[in-house]
Structure formats: C-alpha cells, structure tokens
Fold:
Amino acid sequence: MKFCRILTVVLGVWLLGTAVPALAKMAPDPNACLQCHADVVSASDFMDSVHGKNACTSCHVEVTDLDEHLAGNIEIGAVNCATCHSNEHRDHADSVHAESGIGCIECHSDIHGQAKLSGSKVAVVEKCSECHDVESYVQSSHGLAIAAGKNDSAACNDCHGIHGVARVPDPETSEGGAFKTAACIECHADEEKMEHAGVNPHAVETYLESYHGKNYRLGFPQQSAGCADCHSAHGVLPPSHAESTIGEAKIVDTCAACHPKATSQFTKFYAHGDHGDRENYPIMYYTFISMTGLLIGTFTVFWIHTLLWMFRGFVENRQKAAALAAGHEAHHIPEAHKQYRRFEKRHIFLHLTVIISFLGLSLTGLPLKFADQPWAQTMMSFFGGVHYAGLIHRGCAILTFYYFVGAILMSIDFLFIRRDIKAHPFVRLFGPDSLMPNFRDVRDVTAMVRWFFFKGPKPAFERWTYWEKFDFLAVFWGMFAIGGSGLMLWFPEIFGTFLPGWMFNVATIVHSDEALLATGFIFTVHFFNTHGRPEKFPMDFVIFNGQMTKEEFIEERGDQWKRYEEEGTTENYVVTKPSGVLYDFFFKGFGFLAFFTGITLAILMLYAFISG
Structure:
C-alpha cells in the first residue's frame, strides 16, 4: 500500500515536469499577435468581423511557438480557408474563378475585417464590379431594383452563383441554350413574387407554351430563342425604355438576330400571348374557344357514334354466330368469295401516301404539342432534336400537299373528264359515285341510328357511306386549317411582310388544335370505322389491295351492288388476278404497323391529358 502511494507521487511529478514545457509552447494569445501586427490588423475591426471569435492561429496554424516565430524559424504558408469553409471551397474548386487563379483573398480582400453580408445583394454587385463591367446591369430593371433595396430582384449571384461560378457555356450547345433561360425561370416562375414586383406573372407559363419554350422543354434549347436572346442577359429593360431590346426602337433588330427578314409587322407577334386572357388577347381567346368547341363537338358526336356501333355490332356478331351454330344461314350467296375490285391502283397509292405522311406528321408533331411529357422528350431525342424532327415534319407536309393536289385532280377527272360516267357534271357531283354529301346520307344516318337502337335494319349503303364522305371532306377543311396555318409557321418572315405578327399566335392555336382533332379522330374514330368495328376487326385489307369478296360487297354496299346488277356492270369489276402472297404479307405487316403506331399515339395523348 505504501509502495503504491510512492509510485503515484513519482508519476505526478513526472507528468508535471513534462506538461510545463508543453504549456510554455501553447498557441500565442491574439493580444500577443496584435502587439506586432497592429499596423495590419485592427483589433476592433477584427473583433467585429465574422472571424472575431477565432484566434489568429485558427488560420495561421503553423504558429505554435511564439519564440520560434519571433526568431523567424517558422515559415508562414497561405491560409487554407477550406479548413472551415469546406462547402464553399468545394464549389469554388470547380468554378471559372479557380480556373483563372482567383482565390478567396481576391474577393475577400479585407479578411481581418470581413463583415457579414447578411443577404445584401448590393454588396455582391459591388464586389463583382471590382473585376467585371456591370454598367449595363446597374442601369437595368434588375440593377435599379437592387440599388433601391428590393432584394426580390436578381443580382449577379442569382444567375451565376457565389462560389461555384461556372463558365458561361457556348450558347450553341444544349447547356448554353438552357442557361440563357433556366436562370430566368428560377425567379419568374414564382407568380406571387412577380405580381408583387409588377412583372407579368405568366411570362414563364406562356413562354413554355410557345414554340421557343417547347424546344427548351424538349431538351434542345439551343435551337430556339431563350429569355436572354430577346431581353438581353444584363441590360433587361421594360418595353417603354428607349434602350430596351424589346422596345419599339430596337425590337426589329432583336427579332432579326434569328429572323433576318423580320419587319415591324412581324414584331407584332405576342411573345407572351395568353389565350386564356380575354381582356388583353381577345383574338387568341376567341380562336382558342372556337377550336376547343370544334374539338369537343366533333369528338362527342363521333365517339358516341362509335360506342353505339361497337355495341350494336357486337350483338349482331353474336346473333350471326348463334344462327350458324344452329345450322341456319341468313342467305346463300352464289360465288360468295369471288373477288371484286373496289379501288384502283391510283387510289391505293394515294392512300399509302396519306398513311405515310400522316404518321410522319403525327410522330414529329405530337411531341411538340405535348412537350412537357417524358415520352415526348424521348421521341424528340430519337429524331435527333427539334430541328431534324422539323425537317421530317415539313417533308411529310409536302407529301400532304401532294396527295391533296392528287385528290383535286382526281375530282376534276371524275366531274369533267371520265367517259365511263354518262352524266352532266352537276349530276355526277351529287350522284351515287360522288363523295359529295346528299340527301341520301341523311336517310342513311337516320337508318343507322335506328339500327343502333334495334329499331330497324342496318342500311344498305351505296358506293360511299356518310362517314367516308366526312373523312374525305375533312381533308379539304384540314388542308386550309392545318395546311394554311402550317405554311404561315413554316415561312413566318414571308407572311410577316404583309400580316401582323399576332396572326402567328392565331396560326399556332389553329395548327395545334386542328392537328389534335385530326390525330384524335383518325386514331380513334377512323380506325374503328375501317378496322375496329366488330365485322372487320382486326383489319379491313381492301384499301391495300383494292379487293373485296362478293359477300362483303353485298353485305356492306348492298345498294351499290344492286345498281351494278341493274346496269349489268358487275362483271366489269371482277378481279382476274388477285394480289399475291408476298404483296399481302408485306402490306398487311405495314398496315398493322401503322395501325398500332396510331393506337400507341392515341394512348400517349390520352395519358398526357390525364396526367395534366
């Protein structure tokens, strides 16, 4: 026990002996530093600075022995700010400032008296102005607001950041194209903040709905104008200002940067036109209302027609199957499977052109229509961007004009040139072989509706049904609506020489909504009428080979067959050489591919509407 006490005392004395020299070499007191460095560091300024609670050696970590330091035996290195400011250091390390050799001290020069910025954007602007020419910014709407103490406005750091200032990317790249818009959207998407600032609260929404904004959404912002292209990057000014890039004096030059032949008429385009704003954009509003009414009305009528037909056809098929199972046939048709020609080669070729052009237009146009959808962005990437999709779209538009002209020429031939029809052009126009609607179509519609509700037999149609006539005439309406508006959007500089720019806003609404009507109608109503109805599902091949059996002919177009029998011309339409196996195999494959492509697009459109 006595030995333990002695050992404890010895150890204590030893520890005290080693600790005293160590204590003598502790870090110097800041007051000791200030005795020599008072000419560099103001004690009061340092104590009031953000670093005031730190000792000198918190930064100058090499100074561990005052005597050695005074003797000049300690080499003082550069301060490593990352010791405390690791996040800022990491951001700065990847910045353009670091690339240029600009470190912390170049911006934080008065490091010993560094005051808290406390969110002061004025201080940020002043600091940036030490190296950068910020005159245009200082005189801009943003700069003047900051100087007036409105911190809601944008300062240098809002767009470029503070420590992680990146090099402004090439505007010809995707990153550069996005930068000139993304920085603006960051603030301007806040509608409440914009209303408080007296700025258009819907600027972002309307921009993203425009052609320019859709490019941005789809991931190809470099292929169209961004915010900075029109409003400039730093010298943003209201239109009323004489130096504004969107003011009356300079807006033509601003537009001419992308549209070299822009005129004052061209610049009347509503860059942020809102079709929901009746007060400020009445023409856009009523155009949108009209097109929406056309869409809703058309789809309501024909979708109801489709659903009624689908159910009635299903019931009829079950009745036929039950009759066959019982050993009964409704009627026996001699040579029921003998082939007759319904379409000539020119009709088949023209329809193939329609299919190719329409699918091409749909595949390249719908991603632009629904630019906010992930599937649209994927499809546009597949095409290589909006630019290449646009080339395909316009190529298909040329095909559309081709088949439209073809339909016109065939109509002229039918009315005035063909010798096999012995009738006056007016009689031909409203005769049974014409696609012009007549009073018979009213009777057929009435009979069809009665058949839907089990009130009468299915009508025996002539060469053309009322829904086929509607499809044909819709092409003419579509060419003026979609084709006309499409030409305006294709050649805006030409049309902008004699039309006011707001006509392009109208053209955009018409083109977009009419295209939606066309694609929705073709991929639902037309596909059902031709391929999806119970008696034809999954495909009516007649449009690909022009042939149909006698049984089909009589069942579907009984009055046409009856007329041919009365004229004694049925044998004129007999097919002597049916289409071959390879022909049928190829075109059935093509037909199913087109069909399922259309159905897929219809599903994607429905998903887009449901997902909002």
